[in-house]
Amino acid sequence: MSYELWYWDGIPGRGEFVRLALEAGGIAYRERVREPGTSANALIEDMQSPRKHPPFAPPYLVADGMTLAQTANILLFLGEKHGLAPASLEGRLWVNQLQLTIADMVTEAHDTHHPISANDYYEDQKDEAARRARSFREERIPKFLAYFERALTGRTTWLAGGKRWTYVDLSLFHLVDGLLYAFPKRMGTVASHYPNVMALHARVAVLPALQPYFDSGRRLPFGECIFRQYRELDAA
């Protein structure tokens, strides 16, 4: 029996963190909104349907009779259930802590182009976005990446310290990928300061377990989602 992943169609967004874990873990799943014949309103209709534990927003995963929402929560479940996280409680909590920190940075990246309201167009808040993006580039990108660099220092190849990747390595890969897309000038300036982070990004990019997904055409490109490329918001 496969899991059901529900997320908006046409964008990688937060759903991509879950997709990467499912794909790399070889876990069977159906992406319901992208199935042929599914209506554009299917996600909203399903999300509002009666259930014991309703999700607030996508992504959410229907698995083993449960509805699991929030990216980090879904990955916590997949990590323990499918061996995508350390076996020890301490290790699972550590990768969950890292995942929650990634979630914090994802929110800040999104808010560079929607600092006032997600319901308003970027063009309606460009001045505020410019100020927010400058702070993100100059202060927050270095602070977050320095933390992940420190988390990798002295460990083996991966964030959990073991010989095999965990879901949080995949998530850090996607986060860095998004930053390289949205802020290429800034990342071109600072990336060399975080050699461990960039080396992990390169390792995940060539993981054999992910190549079928990368080569399939199912991986959605960045665009109108969390990581957006506005030239005026980027600078070295």
Automatic annotation (TrEMBL):
TM regions (residue ranges): none
Segments forming domain GST N-terminal: 1-86
Lineage: Bacteria, Pseudomonadati, Pseudomonadota, Betaproteobacteria, Burkholderiales
Superkingdom field: Bacteria
GO molecular function per UniProt: glutathione transferase activity
GST C-terminal domain mapped to chain residues: 88-233
GO biological process: glutathione metabolic process
Gene3D superfamilies xrefs: 1.20.1050.10, Glutaredoxin (3.40.30.10)
Protein name: Glutathione S-transferase
Organism expressing this protein natively: Achromobacter pestifer
